[in-house]
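Task 17 of the worksheet. Students: predict the tertiary structure of the chain below and write it out as structure tokens. Keep your answer in the requested format; marks are given for formatting as well as content.
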Amino acid sequence: MKIFILRHGEAEHFADTDAERALTSRGRAESEAVARACKEQGFASFDKVLVSPYIRAQQTWQEISVHFSSASIVTCDDITPYGQSDQVFDFANALIEVEKLDSLLFVSHLPLVGYLTSEFVKDMTPPMFPTSGLVCIEYDPKTQNGEVLWHITP
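Model answer:
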């Protein structure tokens, strides 16, 4: 199966709270470019999409959703910047098993996206993600291990 991990697009530096930071026009454009590149890799749909409740992640999904179809889109409170990667990993594995998913997209934040990548790809140092960075992992739910197939940066 495929696991996709996407960091939100570039966001404004200031807002009343971190959760309220909105995408910049550059963040919207770069997210759109990454979505087009992902589609060029042959991916036009996801079985499930988990999106952080933070505005910049929600807006990132809104920007790229025109390029993809998804059977299920869920706002997930556990994938904010300081979500616990081991708990998200366990949750994802349960979803994969119960829902028989072939593809799962996370739209989230640093540092979680780096730590989550290293949960799915054992013995990998958590990578730094640029804004709008996307990684595709070939993942085996039986062994709970994967390998990075490709990554796209704006």
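Marker's comment: The chain has four helices and eight strands. The first strand starts at residue 2 and ends at 7.
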